[in-house]
Design a protein that fits this description.
This protein is α+β, with helices and mostly antiparallel strands. The chain is 37% helix and 24% strand. The chain contains 10 helices and 12 strands. The chain has a 6-stranded mixed β-sheet with strand order 3-4-2-1-12-11. A 6-stranded mixed β-sheet has the order 5-6-7-8-10-9, covered by helices on one side. Helix 1 packs antiparallel against helix 3, helix 3 runs antiparallel to helix 4 and helix 7 packs parallel to helix 8. It starts with a helix and ends with a helix.
């Protein structure tokens, strides 16, 4: 029986280590990148299994455990900034702080919790995905607070939207339904900030790579300063979002943590064990003051609140 358990432990160590390693090959093929989204799980599980293996296994198997532990450490270091890091800039104390709320509504029939969150926080800008009929009703209810609204119906017949307390620039919206993309320029204190709400398909074997291939022609046209809020169905360290950042000339905001998991997981555990697929990207000209996940609404995605300012350099452009 002891031999059986040691054998199973060895197999578990190998499987988790290989899964973690494959994720680093995401630039080669989208199938490898699909593993990268679970890298922090590989780091946690791989580290625990490797330590147990070091205690219980003998001989050559211990070298395997040491290698797995080293890989777990590498995985943990690569994801650490997105769970515990800070992407914040030093700003003047007198700078006007603004807020953006990112939410995937998950097509829920009850928009009450999300609406109450908005009314309590009254962020300057809101980016929404999976806006169903209930979400559209919420937008209508919020029209007094957010008179400037842009709704684009995506390829799945659900909406992606931008709501703003500040007026939109007269330039028309860019709505790409099949790409889950909508863009408006917000005039904040008379100064333009380009805002995108983005919803990308899940990774391989689904259509994420195809969507990104098409977005490659759209993203470079966006003018900074730029903020992108969205459900990317991808982790911020993945090859997919590395390309997104390169093409849009943006960087992912760090320190947000996990945002999505099954409804059965307690909300308090989601920031650590959930998948970090809801993200915010910012360009030069945007100084991040802070970013955090908030209490859950009726969706299985946690909302994200971004606090930011428009940098002085951006005002001079």
């Amino acid at each position: 029986m002891a031999v059986l358990w040691r054998g199973l432990l060895t197999v578990a160590v190998v499987v988790v280590a290989v899964g973690g390693a494959i994720g680093f090959l995401g630039r080669i093929h989208p199938a490898f990148d699909s593993f990268s989204h679970f890298r922090h799980h590989a780091a946690l599980a791989g580290g625990v299994l490797a330590v147990v293996a070091l205690v219980l296994l003998r001989g050559r198997a211990r070298f395997l455990a040491i290698s797995a532990l080293a890989l777990a450490v590498i995985c943990a270091l690569s994801v650490r900034p997105f769970f515990f890091g800070a992407n914040h800039h030093a700003i003047a104390a007198s700078a006007a702080e603004r807020t953006l709320l990112q939410m995937n509504l998950f097509r829920v029939s009850d928009h009450g919790p999300a609406q109450r969150l908005v009314e309590r926080l009254t962020p300057d800008i809101i980016t929404l995905q999976e806006v169903s009929d209930s979400g559209k009703a919420m937008m209508a209810d919020l029209a007094g607070l957010y008179p400037h609204q842009e709704l684009c119906i995506d390829g799945n017949d659900y909406g992606i939207a931008i709501l703003s307390q500040h007026p939109f620039a007269p330039t028309p919206a860019t709505c790409e339904p099949l790409l889950g993309f909508v863009n408006r320029t917000v005039l904040m204190d008379g100064e333009p900030i380009s805002v995108v709400s983005q919803h990308i398909q899940p990774p391989w074997p689904y259509g994420q790579a195809d969507t990104l291939r098409e977005l490659q022609h759209v993203l470079p046209t966006l003018e900074p300063p730029l903020i992108v809020g969205g459900d990317f169905n991808a982790a911020p360290w993945s090859a997919a979002l590395s390309r997104y950042g390169k093409w849009s000339r943006t960087r992912p905001v760090e320190g947000i943590g996990g945002t999505w998991t099954h409804f059965l997981m307690p909300a308090a555990l989601v920031p650590v064990f959930g998948l970090p697929i809801d993200n915010i990207f910012v360009s030069e000209g945007i100084d991040v003051v802070g970013a955090q996940t908030l209490e859950p609404t009726a969706s299985d995605h946690l909302p994200i609140l971004l606090q930011f300012t428009r940098s002085k350099d951006a005002r001079l452009q």
